[in-house]
Amino acid sequence: MELASYLAGERWSDHPACTHPLLAALARLVNDNVGDESRAELVELVPSIIGLAGDDLRVDARLALRCATTALPVAAAERQLALAVSVLAAEEMLARLDGAPSGRMSERSREAMAQVPQAAEQARRFSRAARITEKGFRRYAAPNAVQLSVVGIVQACVPDPDRLLRELLAGAIGDCSALIRGVGPAAGAETPREEGAVPVHA
């Protein structure tokens, strides 16, 4: 992130104003948790994060959703409930911001939740009894989802966690670019449907 601040003409900092704070936090977490070889590969992503800034809460929700849906299928059992709750919270926030019905869920989220059915059911019961505010989501829920997701991937029993973390960061950058610059599809941007709805095929 220091390099991003330099390239953007800002003072040397790992909290550059040219990048959305939550995306910058994800980039720092990924950078701090990959090996030296993988860290060097992250440099090529730096130019693409410059200018990805703004205060649209949808960005926070998309980032939290990207992270949680990436980590949920591979995370250890003790982390799955919190990650599943993070998925539902991000989906609920996006639905609220879009003026859509509660319970709307993207296919990416459905697929992630389907891989951990017990945690998913517990998360649904928990989420029905809780309602998060927009302020609380931005300040606590979204950052916690990002941090928990990175830790979950780092500690997961997967062959190449560094690759998964790099793909996560690249996908998150793409999501931010889609929302802020209107370039490319965001994660979960396929037509969502309400929880329990049955898709109709032509």
In short:
With 202 residues, this protein is an all-alpha fold. It has one domain (2-186).
Helix/strand layout:
Blueprint: H1 2-7, H2 21-33, H3 36-42, H4 46-49, H5 57-71, H6 77-98, E1 104-105, H7 107-114, H8 117-128, H9 134-154, H10 161-180, E2 193-194
Antiparallel strand pairs: 1-2
Helix amount: 55-70%
Report the oligomer: single chain
What's the gyration radius in Å? 17 Å
Poorly predicted tracts of residues:
1-13, 187-202
Total of domains = 1
Q: Sum up the overall morphology in one term.
A: globular
Query: H/E element string?
Result: HHHHHHEHHHHE
Largest sheet: 2 strands, antiparallel
Side by side, the strands of the main sheet go 1-2
Class derived from helix and strand content = mainly alpha
Q: What is the β-strand count?
A: 2
Percentage of residues in DSSP E strands = under 5%
The helix tally amounts to: 10
Q: What is the arithmetic mean of pLDDT?
A: 86
Cα separation of the termini: 47 Å
What are the key terms here?
202 residues; mainly alpha; two-stranded antiparallel sheet; 10 helices; 2 strands; 63% helix; 2% strand; globular; disordered N terminus
